[in-house]
Amino acid sequence: MLCASPTGLHRVSYLEWGDRANPRVLLCVHGLTRSAHDFDFLARSLCRDYRVLCPDLPGRGESQWLKNAAEYVLPIYVSDMVTLIARLDVEQLDWLGTSLGGMIGMALASLPQSPVRRLVLNDVGPLLSAQALQRIGTYVGKAPAFDSLDAAEQYVRAASAPFGPHTDAEWRLLTEHVVRARPDGGWRMHYDPAIAVAYASHDNGKDIDLWPLYDAIRCPTLVLRGEQSDLLTPATALDMQKRGPKARVVELTGVGHAPTLIHADQIALVKEFLLEA
To answer: What's the rounded mean pLDDT across residues 94-104?
Structure first.
């Protein structure tokens, strides 16, 4: 899919599940350094009820890297997703976003005439804590080259420890989704390290405040919060129940930032919310 930014054109890749004729559409958008394959388990579970689309944001997965690193920002991501929605030729859809994907969803759902019918925010809210932003900034764009897939997995396990307990097989899948083999036989993270440039511009020791976006949302909203999350604090989650769309908040025990949505209990929460209407 061809998209535009001020610097030029770039291609965005996406995975598709289910019947293309199904008018019920779900768009799932991943976090900062992850990929479309993060939703493989969820998409398999929902593809009988939904046409499920899972894009790779620009600079990640199979999508093209941007020429100007300063364009790895929310307005460009929203524009790309609007292009995808136009390509689908649908009037309404449901949105599930993890972390950055949820920020994009909030921005889109806040707009007049938004196509978002129901919104799931996976461990993200309108106030992002400076502590978590600084933690994430310690590894974004700084991953070394790896001699083996095992070494890459150990790095992913350490950087993504807040995901919570997973089996060895699940950690291997979570690693394979975000690394690629190098021509010299080693491995590297499969995202543009330059995404750290735009990210660093927000790392000023302050929280990021998106409350004006959240307060403008009117569609039914579900918030999944990792009990140990440092990005979405308990206080912010409580305020999200009182303001804007007055979200339904579910806290997941033993998990930080962010729930991976590959376990059956997490998938069931999403499925129940999306299909209840």
So the answer is: 98
C-alpha–C-alpha distance, residues 238 and 248, integer Å: 10
Q: If residue 104 lies in a helix (H) or strand (E), which one and from where to where?
A: helix 100-109
Secondary structure (3-state) at 36:
helix
pLDDT tens-place string over residues 153-193: 999 999 999 999 999 999 999 999 999 999 888 999 999 99
Reduce the DSSP state of residue 248 to 3 states and report it. strand
Strand partners, 2: 11
Q: What pLDDT shows up at residue 203?
A: 59
- CA pair distance 267, 277, nearest whole angstrom: 17
Domain that includes residue 125, residue range: 2-132+207-275
Query: Which amino acid is residue 32, in one-letter code?
Result: L
Position 168 in a domain: no
Place of tokens 């046409």: 51
For the chain, what is the mean pLDDT?
Answer: 95
How many domains does the structure of the chain reveal? 1
pTM for this predicted structure: 0.96
DSSP state of 224: E
Question: pLDDT tens for residues 100-128?
Answer: 999 999 999 999 999 999 999 999 999 99
Q: How many CA atoms lie within 13 A of 169 on its CB side?
A: 2
Alpha-carbon Rg for the chain, nearest whole angstrom, is 18
Q: Are 98 and 123 in contact (CB under 8 A)?
A: yes
Output the furthest CA–CA distance in the chain (Å, rounded).
54
